[in-house]
Design brief:
Elements lengths: L3 H26 L5 H31 L3 H27 L8 H18 L11 H5 L1
C-alpha cells in the first residue's frame, strides 16, 4: 500500500465496510445486543468510518506529494488502528469477551501515531503546485 490508488482503494473499501457495520448495528443488532454492547459496536463503526476517510485523504496527499515514507507510514498506522481499535470493539460487542478490550488501546495508539506522524512531517512534504512563484506571492 504505497501508491495513491492502493491507499484510496483501502480507504474506500473500509468506508463501505464501516457504513455496513453501522447499518448492521442500527438494524440487525439493536434487538440482540444490550445497550452497552450496541454502543461499543457503534463506537467501532464511527472510528472505522472516520479513519477510512483519513485514508482517502492520505491517498490524495500521496498523489500530491509523492510516496513519502511519512505518508505511507501514517496510512499504515490508520489501517492498524482500524483493525485493532474498531475490530476489537466489534468483537467485544458481538462476543461479550471482555479480554478483547485489552486490544482496543493498541488501535487507539495506532490512530494517534498516524496523526502525529502526519503532523510532525507536514513541514517537509514537497507539495506540488501548478501556480508560479509570482502567483503565490499575490
Amino acid at each position: 500500500m504505497n501508491t495513491p490508488a492502493s491507499i484510496l482503494r483501502c480507504g474506500a473499501i473500509n468506508a463501505a465496510l464501516a457504513i455496513g457495520a453501522g447499518a448492521f448495528a442500527a438494524h440487525g443488532l439493536k434487538n440482540h445486543l444490550s445497550e452497552y454492547s450496541l454502543a461499543v459496536f457503534k463506537t467501532g463503526a464511527e472510528y472505522h468510518l472516520m479513519h477510512s476517510v483519513a485514508l482517502v485523504l492520505m491517498a490524495l496527499l500521496v498523489g500530491l506529494c509523492g510516496p513519502q515514507k511519512s505518508l505511507i507510514r501514517s496510512a499504515w498506522f490508520f489501517v492498524c488502528g482500524i483493525i485493532f481499535f474498531s475490530g476489537s470493539l466489534y468483537a467485544l460487542a458481538l462476543t461479550g469477551v471482555r479480554a478483547l478490550g485489552a486490544i482496543t488501546p493498541l488501535g487507539g495508539v495506532s490512530f494517534i501515531l498516524a496523526w502525529l506522524i502526519l503532523a510532525w512531517n507536514a513541514h517537509s512534504l514537497p507539495f506540488k503546485t501548478t501556480a508560479s512563484k509570482g502567483d503565490r506571492q499575490k
